[in-house]
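Objective 1b: paired records.
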Amino acid sequence: MRSARLKLLTALTLAASALLSSCLPASAGAFNVKPIRVFLNKDGTSTVVTIENQDQNVLRLQVRAYAWTNDRHGQPVLVPTDDLIVFPTLMDINPMERRSIRIGFSGTAAAKELTYRIALDEMPSIESQLGKSRAPGLQVRTRVTIPIFFTPLVSIPKAQLDALAVTHGTLHGSVGNGGNVHATVSTVEVSGRDSSGAKIFEKQIDGWYVLAGENWDFSAALGRSCARIKSIAVTVQTDAGRFERTINASGADCR
């Protein structure tokens, strides 16, 4: 096992020396990253991510790998992992220069999609660490995380709109993923109608990744319209399909 990891690290070291020349989309304030999502599988266990420094100063980055899950509210939970090998883990990128990071999978494939994130953390300049640069004010450092998906042999997408309920004037709902690969929710559209059928409430909620076996909870405060709403329609747009449900509402749900 150790020799296999050593061979993989050697291969990553050699491959990372090449710079890519493709056009890069912006994904951070001072630097661009391409691609912004990575898909690996048993036939392709490694890839390259390219970073372009668009600032006039040297960009210093630390690169780390994490196993990735989400809590029910869609907040990422990141745990350090050895399933991915990244090289280099520290890099300096000169102004307008491009550098590449090699990523290799060294874990064990499973029937369910494995999900990771590579974190690119901007580090202070050497001058500031040595005390030569003491610019006043708060210095904000950029962090970019890149989703890494290791897909199974057979992909089974299966998202669904789970329980909907109104309590204390707020609609609560959940999107569940019973499949073995992630689903991407683009939007959740909520509309409320009064007794005449007129639409008196409307809200759109931005979606997120719902990883295999997970649930993503969403909510929408109905506000002053709540007491007049008699029915609520919810439409969820995902890459696994479109889901719609309508529930009845009453003034009692607003208290």
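Objective 1b, second protein:
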Amino acid sequence: MNPLRYAVYLAPPPESALWRFGSAVVGRDAASGEALLGFAPMGFDAAAWRDMTTEPRRYGFHATIKAPFRLAEDASLSDLSTALAELAHAERPFAAGRLAVSTLTLGEAAGFVALTPSAPSAAIARLEERVVRGLDAFRAPLNDAERARRDPARLTARQRDAFERWGYPYALADFRLHFTLTNALDEAERIAETLAREFERRLADPTLVVDSLVLFVQKPNGDFVIDQRFPLGG
């Protein structure tokens, strides 16, 4: 059995301003694996900021399309890669609107800060559904530890159903694209205002261009890194 977990994410090109911004905020470059030290928005020192970004740093800067999963016993990474390449080849790149800094809850007791599209994108919703459904045969069933970690009692009935069916409670009907920037924090609104100013300063054009699907793999130390990038349209 392959103990590693895989995930399909949106992740901007490593040379882009959006990737540089997101990776600096979370404190790690998931393309190179390099730790990025020193980022601190106004009012925070770098050490305090790193304490606020431990969760997104582990996953790398990304937006979830298909959440982390273990491979099914009869599946291989080669099989998964082939299926993902075929799925990406059948799509076309598209613009999904402007990103903005906002706060989300997704069932957490406290909000977290994320980049989200300024308006819902039907194209993103369709892409997410095709990936979630199209690759689910490669996902191993949830085990007890994975169920306990998600704490299903805190989910709605629809989210519990999605969690059992697709391995992620916020798939399909409850899907909302977001690039997580911080842990869940009591002061998320204030931090979002500060990060919004930094985001506007660093990005001349905050338009999200969806041009590839990116396969991430979790390393033995728990960090996710980019394994392969699959351009839409081949």
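The domain at 5-231 is CATH 3.90.1140.10 (Cyclic Phosphodiesterase; Chain: A,). Helices lie at 17-26, 46-51, 54-59, 77-89, 122-134, 144-150, 157-166, 188-202.
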